[in-house]
Amino acid sequence: MSETTAPVGARSTASTPSMTSAGTAGSPTGRARGALVALRVVQVLLALFYGIASALPKLMAHPTAVESFDRIGWGSGAMYAIGALELAGAIALLVPVLQSVAATALGALMVGAFLVQLTAFDGENAATPLVLIAPLALIAWARRTHNADLARLLRRR
Length: 157
What we know:
This protein is mainly alpha-helical. The protein is built from 6 helices and no strands. It has helices spanning 30-59, 63-72, 75-92, 99-120, 127-142, 146-156. Helix 1 crosses helix 5 (127-142), helix 2 packs across helix 3 (75-92) and helix 3 (75-92) packs antiparallel against helix 4.
């Protein structure tokens, strides 16, 4: 059915709210709202994982993290730097204007982690970064409209 013959009160796909923050194109309803809630839950879970399970051991120099970085030959400087990047990404996943960029950056970090797992650790935990890339890619794509907001904020300065 075309837009001109649509029943009164029906929305065309062009006017359906996108998966952005509520209030920008109207409040999402039904499945769109459920998808937004599910996406936000995934973001919070990933932020908790990166902040607590991944960044914290590196930033606290937990013996297992120190041993891993010594085995690679990167030392404590790289361990602290990667821990700081993971913590920054975890926090940024929760900030609306930074969500897409954070997911993209963490995804790139996971590509590096995958390569390190394959080369330095004979692939023993290579599946973990691959599993994390999928939801990060989804977040980066679904929240991509925030990139324009970020660009506007940066241009103002």
